[in-house]
């Protein structure tokens, strides 16, 4: 079993790598920061928010394949009033969160780097169900990724590859901590280890979508039943409490 | 410019954008962007040549053209320009994906970002032209993704800008415009079912009057046009 994980150095990515390794798999782990390799872990360094870096990485990914499990996990947020975040941050965010997973998926398909029976997982966000005032471009990037995943699912299935899209709520990571509004409670966020286990299990059960944990399931249902009210509530509990701009 | 409110339309030189410009011409000062030479536009419209596949440059060009023309407020910013390629997931290369996202999503984000102060000044509204494909399309995955991105942007920005700047997204159904040919899609006999750019612009203009936050133009509009004897 060989897995490919992006954003592998911290948070959910690191938890996924750990679980793949401890179940006896090999992992090609991509991150901006250099990882300690060795054994069944092959680290690749690349800045996935930079097109040239991605272009240089693609042949190395193909060379290190084929893969049985791919998780497009790398992502970044940008929180604060829409106008106050610099355009360069939006460009990097959209490249990292949306464009690179799409470019990488197309390349993995074209080069035949996905084994028959492989799982490809896209990490979107609960904001797909709820909206996210105070992180409008982040929300846009995750909506785009979710709909890309949905669009390619049928064609991937013909090749024996199964696509799962994950819509996590808040996760207890350093990244989430930076972007959380004032007074948000860290103990309500899901542990990366717990989320990683749920994701791997859902993909293996060939679930199309996963809203992990009660918070995400409630957010999903609220977004379905009352989309506008839910987004207005998100404004109240997040946007109006943001006390800083983080990107 | 004179006392009329100003509307800016990206991709205002062909298809739905041009047809919309013709409808707004009477009551608005128009600023139209496009990649061509600006021939055949409504008289008095200010044409700005800008290539949205290079979003950063295009935004810069548009902002400085507005400054030169003395436009300091906008009543409507209509982000209509779009591109797409008809290809399944494994047939899309990096260049195609990047171009589609740049024109449809990145340029829209950066344009809205840069021109938000003008919209606020003009108590205006951001109008995003989405697509019925925003829920997913196996034959145009990155196009569908880009339009889903716009949908998400509209939803969150609308809540964020509540009471300051309006946000509306309109999803046109299939329309006879130059985009299909450029996308490499031949609809064949299906084309009879498509809206003309004029009919679609009628519907978009009508929806813009209502200020509904989001709307899809497809079956309802076709039936209403049939009943009222207007051409589709």
UniProtKB/TrEMBL annotation, chain A:
Q: What domain of life is recorded for the organism?
A: Bacteria
Tell me the SUPFAM superfamilies matching this sequence. NAD(P)-binding Rossmann-fold domains (SSF51735)
Q: Which UniProt keywords apply?
A: Oxidoreductase
One Pfam family recorded for the sequence: adh_short
> Per the record's keyword annotation, is Oxidoreductase included, yes or no?
yes
Q: Which InterPro entries match?
A: NAD(P)-bd_dom_sf, Sc_DH/Rdtase_CS, SDR_fam
Q: Does the keyword Oxidoreductase apply?
A: yes
Q: Which family does it belong to?
A: Belongs to the short-chain dehydrogenases/reductases (SDR) family.
> Know the name of this protein?
SDR family NAD(P)-dependent oxidoreductase
Organism, by scientific name, is: Hoeflea poritis
From TrEMBL, chain B:
Q: Which Pfam families has this protein been placed in? A: adh_short (PF00106)
**Does this entry carry the keyword Oxidoreductase?**
yes
- What Gene3D superfamilies has UniProt attached to this entry? NAD(P)-binding Rossmann-like Domain
The UniProt entry, under InterPro entries, shows: KR_dom, NAD(P)-bd_dom_sf, SDR_fam
Q: Which UniProt keywords apply?
A: Oxidoreductase
**Keyword hit for Oxidoreductase:** yes
Ketoreductase domain span? 5-175
Known CDD domains for this protein?
Answer: SDR_c
Q: Specify the superkingdom.
A: Bacteria
Q: Which family does it belong to?
A: Belongs to the short-chain dehydrogenases/reductases (SDR) family.
Which PANTHER family does this chain map to?
OXIDOREDUCTASE-RELATED, RETINOL DEHYDROGENASE-RELATED
| UniProt name for this protein | SDR family NAD(P)-dependent oxidoreductase
């Amino acid at each position: 079993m060989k897995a490919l994980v992006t954003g592998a150095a911290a948070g959910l990515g690191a938890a996924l790598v750990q679980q793949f390794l401890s179940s006896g798999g090999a992992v090609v782990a991509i991150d901006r920061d250099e990882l300690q390799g060795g054994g069944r872990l092959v680290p690749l360094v690349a800045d996935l928010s930079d097109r040239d870096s991605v272009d240089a990485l693609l042949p190395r990914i193909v060379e290190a394949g084929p893969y049985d499990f791919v998780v497009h996990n790398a992502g970044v947020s940008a929180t604060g009033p829409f106008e106050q975040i610099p355009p360069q941050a939006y460009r990097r965010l959209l490249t990292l969160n949306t464009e690179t997973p799409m470019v990488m998926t197309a390349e993995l398909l074209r080069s035949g780097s996905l084994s028959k029976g492989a799982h490809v997982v896209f990490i979107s966000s609960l904001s797909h169900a709820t909206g996210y005032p105070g992180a409008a471009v982040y929300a846009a990037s995750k909506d785009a990724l979710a709909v890309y995943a949905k669009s390619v699912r049928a064609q991937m299935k013909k090749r024996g590859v199964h696509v799962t899209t994950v819509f996590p709520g808040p996760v207890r990571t350093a990244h989430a901590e930076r972007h959380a509004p004032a007074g948000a409670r860290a103990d309500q966020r899901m542990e990366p280890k717990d989320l990683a286990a749920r994701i791997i299990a859902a993909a293996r059960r060939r679930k199309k979508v996963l809203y992990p944990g009660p918070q995400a399931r409630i957010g999903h249902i609220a977004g379905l039943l009352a989309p506008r009210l839910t987004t207005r509530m998100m404004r109240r509990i997040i946007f109006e409490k943001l006390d800083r701009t983080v990107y | 410019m004179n006392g009329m409110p100003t509307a800016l339309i990206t991709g205002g030189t062909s298809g739905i954008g041009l047809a919309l410009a013709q409808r707004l011409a009477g009551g608005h000062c128009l600023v139209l962007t496009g990649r061509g030479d600006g021939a055949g536009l409504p008289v008095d419209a200010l044409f700005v040549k800008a290539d949205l596949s290079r979003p950063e440059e295009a935004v810069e060009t548009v902002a400085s053209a507005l400054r030169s023309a003395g436009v300091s407020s906008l009543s409507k910013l209509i982000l209509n320009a779009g591109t797409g390629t008809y290809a399944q997931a494994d047939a899309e290369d990096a260049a195609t994906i990047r171009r589609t996202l740049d024109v449809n999503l990145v340029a829209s984000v950066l344009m809205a970002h840069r021109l938000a102060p003008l919209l606020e000044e003009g108590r205006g509204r951001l109008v995003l032209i989405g697509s019925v494909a925003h829920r997913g399309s196996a034959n145009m995955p990155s196009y569908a993704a880009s339009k889903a991105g716009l949908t998400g942007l509209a939803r969150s920005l609308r809540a964020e800008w509540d009471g300051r700047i309006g946000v509306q997204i309109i999803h046109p159904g299939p329309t006879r415009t130059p985009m299909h040919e450029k996308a490499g899609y031949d609809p064949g006999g299906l084309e009879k079912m498509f809206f003309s750019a004029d009919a679609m612009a009628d519907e978009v203009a009508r929806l813009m009057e209502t200020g509904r936050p989001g709307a899809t133009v497809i079956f309802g509009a076709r039936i209403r046009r049939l009943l009222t004897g207007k051409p589709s």
